[in-house]
């Protein structure tokens, strides 16, 4: 018997809530904790998800290639330990497990593990079994008294593990700590409860159970690990693509993320605290900013994103925000754009007339039979509110028509047929459309036939799209009825309906397989299995929604939520 | 007299045949070739049509519809590396160099694909038919401005290259007036909706004189006149000889094989069949006389070592060594021969070969089988990569490098890197 007599006053206490964040020590720079693993451990290879993953031909092929057999591996461990390794892990971690990282000691990483079982007796038994089983691998035993005393009175038992000086301790609260060394163990158990930011982040993310991760970005920055991330926060291109919340989250003091998985899907919430919203913070929405005109949803909708992108301010501040190298290109681009809009100042008079909250919409559309592209993509359009539509609406229409004309010049130089401009009336409003002439009957139809652009002004809404079919639909819907704006605090929100994505993958399966073979050197059978796996995943998901909230307050909090809903 | 199973037929000869008629072979294929004999090996290379179904399916058309050159390049490389139709792909590469057309100007992947398929379907057939088809190939017409050739404003580019590069060669018995007259004959040939079309209103109807004779009215007749020229069969024979046999054939070689081409009714496949069975093909003059082109080099290494290399990576590798598929540098194509090697391209070859042999894409056991010791690594590398062509000092250097290696696997990698970066390996 290697374990000394246990004096555990906490044995009769009720288990604490499944949150180990209070067990993280001050100075922790990274932390991950979970209770989601418990069901996996309890059911082991019988768990439906595990069984499905292990049963997938792709995984089976990989395991076979590597000569691995999870069942045999578990049996082998059981033969050494004398009990099921999954049962032991369950006993030790059924109320949660956490892994923390202390600041590195030179090149040495300093991880530590915190675990708690629901049943203290079972936990003790599991520890006893493991420590006995450790004998052939360098042994384990009670920590000498002098070292044991350094851990303080709350520790009921402590052990050394193996030859490398690792140590473990069990506390009164029934929490097991394992660290790389006795010194680390002293630091870990001594500083418990002082990781205040971490605990606050855990509380504020608001998901009561599941998986939680936290990063002390300021500490990681001091180690030089975040140079690229910090730089990204000042890149105007990043602002434009990812929006202000995600971009400024790169400058935060700390970042917490919580994930919850249940029968309805997966939810991930992130919370960036203390962002450095310095110069360039020009793209957060103001409280009363009007939302974009929102057409009612259609059944063929693939994706809808309402985002805040203050292009006019971004361009007005371009000399400050963009690098000198990019200035000539920007100036040239804006001058050319001014020509498209008949000489008006592109920044002040055109971009400045659009409200910064805008809608991007993607829907599947029917293509004309004679010009059905070999690879048919969903149509996309952009909708924004324009001020003084009587003046700015025609400017946008003129710019669209000029752009088609310029495109035709380029196409003519390449010997390609030009886009044919046309006008249509939609709900009493004029819509400008452009089409490529139909390809000869015997020709396959290029990807370029996905482009049949359109532009319409519906009251104060500008609708520009890759396909006039979608522009027409959106214009009709906007003219008849508009939906209420999204929740007010949202900065950006993106919603993707995966059924259309699934159809796209199914329709283009052969191409995806071929690209995988050509670009990655995979065999056809492997590439096919990977597409099957992707389809399985996509089929299991109904919608994906991503939303960001927050504002440019120096001590503020930037939040993002990702919600993946399972197919019912 | 061609070799038989017992005469002049060994691993060196088999490697030569597998690497010249096709792009190369692994250890097992060489062993099997030695066992099966010259005729069976050659016959397999000539007739095998076992391309991967996916790479020849309807999906290829959809891939081309995406409009990017890179997948088309990778698809061709996949056909080469797949080794499903060795001679066919070699001939396709040869005609791509002969009728060099670049997407840099054509700018239409679909047209490039169509031209590539033309070389694949007709490259081993009647050259006369091929020349007629290439002359009307939309990619070619765009590439050489044939589609801008109109009566009163002739564009001579296409007519010039039909003589200078495609049919007769530089100094092949024609002059400027022949080019001008041919250009008149081709006037009105153009491309509409990616198809060849003839615009009568742009055609010069008058009679043209070519090579001292009148009676030419149409573009087709101009092509026929080029084919009738005595230099034409010699020019094509030279192309076959330099591609498959030796870089600098004698005038006698060229004349003889030009006659064979005519005897075989201009059938490229039958002419090559006779060429491969001629003693010249396996002669000392022919062996290790050609510098491998980048595509040949990449394919040879990949096939010999059974590398699981992504075709797109192989395309990039060949490109870095000076041969970008579908983008030849000029209308002359790649000069080839010694022009493949300059300080820049040699450095690229050296680095790529060394990086490959020392990296994780190279699987020692898959290439050589289980190696007993370091000495076995040297023997295996020499036998597979340079059979019968490793001089004693080189073998000693390889042995010393192997002895220094920390393990048999490391020895195999070192020796392979040294062989692949040796000048000897770049000759085939």
In summary, what is this structure?
The complex is a heterodimer of chains A (568) and B (428). Chain A has 568 residues and is α+β, with helices and mostly antiparallel strands.
Please estimate the helix content of chain A.
Answer: 25-40%
Q: Report the biggest beta sheet of chain A as strand number plus sense, adding barrel if it closes.
A: 20 strands, antiparallel
Helicity of chain B, as a percent range: 55-70%
CA-atom Rg of chain A in angstroms: 30 Å
- The shape of chain B, in one word, is elongated
Strand content of the residues of chain A, in percent? 25-35%
> Which chain pair has the greatest contact?
A-B, 26 and 32 residues
Secondary structure: number of strands of chain B: 4
Q: DSSP strand (E) fraction of chain B?
A: under 5%
pLDDT averaged residue by residue of chain A: 85
Content-based structural category of chain A:
alpha+beta
Major sheet strand order of chain B? 1-2
Give the strand tally of chain A: 20
- Overall SS class of chain B: mainly alpha
Give start-end ranges of low-pLDDT stretches of chain A: 1-16
What is the CA-CA span between the terminal residues of chain B? 22 Å
Taken from the alpha-carbon principal axes, the silhouette of chain A is: elongated
Explained architecture:
The complex is a heterodimer of chains A (568) and B (428). Chain A is α+β, with helices and mostly antiparallel strands and 568 residues long. Chain A contains 21 helices and 20 strands. Chain A has a 20-stranded antiparallel β-sheet, sandwiched between helices. In chain A, α5 crosses α6 (120-133), α19 runs antiparallel to α21 (524-540) and α20 (509-520) crosses α21 (524-540). Chain A is elongated. The two termini of chain A are 52 Å apart. Mean pLDDT of chain A is 85; it is low at 1-16. Chain B has 428 residues and is mainly alpha-helical. Helix content of chain B is 59%, strand content 4%. A two-stranded antiparallel sheet of chain B has the order 1-2. In chain B, α20 runs antiparallel to α24 (408-420). The relative contact order of chain B is 0.11. Chain A binds chain B through residues 373-375, 414-415, 417, 439-440, 443-448, 508, 510-511, 513-515, 517-521, 524, and chain B through 52, 54-55, 57, 59-67, 71, 74-75, 78, 107-108, 110, 142, 147, 191, 193-195, 308-313.
